[in-house]
């Protein structure tokens, strides 16, 4: 069975890597990185170029020289535990202000730890300082609404990633009046930036596809922070960064850091030992309990060599391949010194497209012909070769096993989406049962009140069971989305946005009824602010984004569309929660003696009367809202009595 499944699979890591390597994106991004690094301390820390020559795309490159200088100029700094210490955004005022969504992200207890989002101290300090500058704020205004590529090399890559996260935060928190333009962050040899909580938060926000980390086979910097922080040799790493500005061009720098061969080998062995211990762990949670580093990767990793490139976007696979490519023995002609391995990206982006053309030539008569059992097996071999792991390498067997394991652990997002569509069809009968339940009470009290009062016990239990089945399905959808198992644009696809909206309008009234039947509004508070499930809030966001996109085509279409009959489902999913609040407020107003307090309550009730009246007049409510015994109909009667009572009291006061 496993063999049959494997024969039907395809390994696309090398295909995506070849596509990226053959595009001009990497070369253009590196050119900007080289220019920003060459400017060094004389610049504001970043360099941007207009998009006229790049198809409208704006490139913003960040230099890491100033970050290195801040470390080199600090007296007494000898330990990586000081320079690269993780800083929790929630507890840092500046970090929480710059990254509000990430700072507010709740720790995921189910993932094995309770850590909140934390990022590298050096990168955070440099970016916060940069973010407060007038030049950077002016840049944000200039790039608003444009396609942007943030990029950087080494420390500059970590700052570029923070800049991209900040841009995504401010773009997603702005009113949904227009879709956010594509944002991409391309880093070259960048050190790890944050802990696993950051990786999970980025997945939950569906930002993972915006980050592309290019890593050469023997570069120590992207792998450095897998080591215990107090063992990180700050002098060597800072020195490598400062050397870049002396000769940073598209070709490798000729300047080498003053580090002995024994120090270089010791650093390689240190990194290899610690990254191996992480790679061998299939579950990467709670690294601190093993005495290691808290840092973990996020986004897509492009593992490149002179033989090509391979892309991996799984956290587990990224760590494992970072180890396997680093541990593979050096082939003749490959770079060996630390500085050369860290500054070789100019050569790589120049030579990889050429190498792809040579690799497509057919085998000569003297070359061995490789026979593979399936296309999938051939794809695995090509991915390993492209990342620099050749067939004779001792790490080849282990890396092959890891790639296959990561593939079996989760199908491609597109395949998952197709499977989810089949499951949606299977769950449809549960939705139909609730529709039938609704129709059976439309003429009496409506299905909201029938469910709240548990009328017709058999029907109630059946509807309640279907409600739980549907909730389980949609929570599973969001879990897959949070774990990047679905396409990045899943929440914008009309089929799923409409399906989620229909489910919400049909089922959330039952959740509201259950909430009030169990008197949770008295113990927890208002349903709208304290009782809504996360899925409903997300579905609201999807629908608003869908309306914003539709409004760009014809802003007057929705406004001028009038219904000829009542909607099948009330278009405000929280309508019944507002009705319950209005009824409770009406009861309190009846016994209120304080004039000022009574005036406030009556004002709130008049506002709800206006709002609900507009919904009814525009036929944006279902017919069950106007059922003779519905909570809304009963409130209308109670409100009329209260208004009459208030009018009589007001008239008596004027007579006095």
From TrEMBL:
Signal peptide: none
GO BP: any one term: lipid metabolic process
Principal location listed in the UniProt entry: cytoplasm
GO CC annotations, alphabetized: cytoplasm; nucleus
Protein's organism: Lolium multiflorum
Protein name per UniProt: Lipase-like PAD4
This protein's UniProt keywords: Cytoplasm, Nucleus, Plant defense
Protein's cellular compartments: Cytoplasm; Nucleus
Record keyword Cytoplasm present: yes
Ranges of residues in domain Fungal lipase-type: 134-227
Ranges where the EDS1 EP domain occurs: 432-646
PANTHER family found in the cross-reference section: LIPASE-LIKE PAD4
Pfam families per UniProt: EDS1_EP, Lipase_3
Classification via SUPFAM superfamilies: alpha/beta-Hydrolases
């Amino acid at each position: 069975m496993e063999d049959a499944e494997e024969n039907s699979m395809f390994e696309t890591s090398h295909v995506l890597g070849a596509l990226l390597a053959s595009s001009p994106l990497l070369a253009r991004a590196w050119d900007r990185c080289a220019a920003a690094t060459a400017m060094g301390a004389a610049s504001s820390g970043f360099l941007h170029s207009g998009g006229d020559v790049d198809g409208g795309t704006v490139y913003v490159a960040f230099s890491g020289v100033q970050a290195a200088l801040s470390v080199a100029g600090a007296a007494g700094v000898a330990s990586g535990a000081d320079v690269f210490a993780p800083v929790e955004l929630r507890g840092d005022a500046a970090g929480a202000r710059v990254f509000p969504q990430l700072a507010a992200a709740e720790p995921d207890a189910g993932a094995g730890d309770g850590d909140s989002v934390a990022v590298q101290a050096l990168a955070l300090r440099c970016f916060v300082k940069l973010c407060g500058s007038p030049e950077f704020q002016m840049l944000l205004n200039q790039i608003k609404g444009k396609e942007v590529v943030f990029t950087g090399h080494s420390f500059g890559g970590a700052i570029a990633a923070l800049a991209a996260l900040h841009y995504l935060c401010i773009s997603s928190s702005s009113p949904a009046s227009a879709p956010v333009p594509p944002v991409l962050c391309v880093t070259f040899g960048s050190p790890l930036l944050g802990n696993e909580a950051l990786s999970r938060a980025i997945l939950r926000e569906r930002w993972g596809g915006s980050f592309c980390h290019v890593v050469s086979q023997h570069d120590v910097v992207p792998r450095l922070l897998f080591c215990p922080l107090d063992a990180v040799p700050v002098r060597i790493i800072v020195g490598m960064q400062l050397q870049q500005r002396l000769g940073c061009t598209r070709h490798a720098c000729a300047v080498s850091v003053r580090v002995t061969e024994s120090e270089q080998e010791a650093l390689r062995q240190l990194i290899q030992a610690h990254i191996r211990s992480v790679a061998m762990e299939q579950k990467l949670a709670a690294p601190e309990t093993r005495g290691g580093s808290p840092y973990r990767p996020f986004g897509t990793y492009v593992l490149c060599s002179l033989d090509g490139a391979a892309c991996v976007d799984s956290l587990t696979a990224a760590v494992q391949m970072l180890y396997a490519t680093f541990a593979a023995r050096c082939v003749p002609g490959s770079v060996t010194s630390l500085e050369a391995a860290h500054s070789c990206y100019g050569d790589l982006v120049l030579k990889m497209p050429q190498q792809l053309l040579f690799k497509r030539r057919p085998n000569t008569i003297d070359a061995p012909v490789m026979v593979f059992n399936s296309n999938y097996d051939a794809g695995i071999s090509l991915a390993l070769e492209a990342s620099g792991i050749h067939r004779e390498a001792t790490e080849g067997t282990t890396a092959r096993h890891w790639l296959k394991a990561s593939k079996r652990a989760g199908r491609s997002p597109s395949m998952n989406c197709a499977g989810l569509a089949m499951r949606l069809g299977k769950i449809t009968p549960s939705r139909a049962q609730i529709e039938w339940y609704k129709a059976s009470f439309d003429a009496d009290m409506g299905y909201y009140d029938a469910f709240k009062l548990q009328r017709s016990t058999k029907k109630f239990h059946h509807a309640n069971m279907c409600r739980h089945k549907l909730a389980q399905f949609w929570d599973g959808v969001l879990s897959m989305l949070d774990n990047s198992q679905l396409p990045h644009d899943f929440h914008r696809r009309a089929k799923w946005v409409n399906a989620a909206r229909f489910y919400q309008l049909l089922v959330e009234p039952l959740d509201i009824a259950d909430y009030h039947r169990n008197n949770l509004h008295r113990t927890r508070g208002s349903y709208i602010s304290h009782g809504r499930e996360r899925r409903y809030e997300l579905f609201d966001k999807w629908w608003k984004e869908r309306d914003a996109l539709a409004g760009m085509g014809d802003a007057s279409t929705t406004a001028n569309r009038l219904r000829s009959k009542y909607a099948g489902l009330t278009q405000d999913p929280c309508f019944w929660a507002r009705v319950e609040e209005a009824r409770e407020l009406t009861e309190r107003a009846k016994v209120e003696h304080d004039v000022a307090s009574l005036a406030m309550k009556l004002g709130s009730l008049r506002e709800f009367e206006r709002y609900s009246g507009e919904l009814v007049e525009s036929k944006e409510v279902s017919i069950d809202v106007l059922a003779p015994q519905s909570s809304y109909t009963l409130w209308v009667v109670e409100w009329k009595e209260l208004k009459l009572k208030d009018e009589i009291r007001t008239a008596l006061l004027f007579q006095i």
